[in-house]
Amino acid sequence: MSDGHGYIADKAAYVRRLKLIEGQARGLQRMVDDEVYCIDILTQVTAMKRALESVSLELLRDHMGHCVVDAARESDDAAAAKIDEAMKAITRLVKS
C-alpha cells in the first residue's frame, strides 16, 4: 500500500475550504448574537451544510480513488475491507 491518504495531494484546497466553512460558522454565531431573522439564519445553515457535504463527497472520491484502489492492488480481502469501510461512511453521510 502507498503512503499517505488520498486527499493529501489536495490538502491545501481542503484546508482552504474548511477555513471558509469555519468562517461560515462564525458568521452564523454573529447572526444569532445580532438577532438576525430566523429564516436568514436557516438559509446560511443550509449553505454551510452544503459546503460540508461537498467536502465530504470530495474526501470520499479521494478515498475511493486512492485507498480503495491501493487495497485492491494488495488483495481481495483488503479491497473488501476498504469497500465496507467506504460503504459505512456513505451510509453515515446519507443518514445525516
From TrEMBL:
The keyword RNA-binding does not apply. Keywords: Copper. The keyword Glycosyltransferase does not apply. InterPro entries: Metal_Tscrpt_repr, Metal_Tscrpt_repr_sf. It comes from the Bacteria. Belongs to the CsoR family. This is Metal-sensitive transcriptional regulator. It comes from Gordonia alkaliphila.
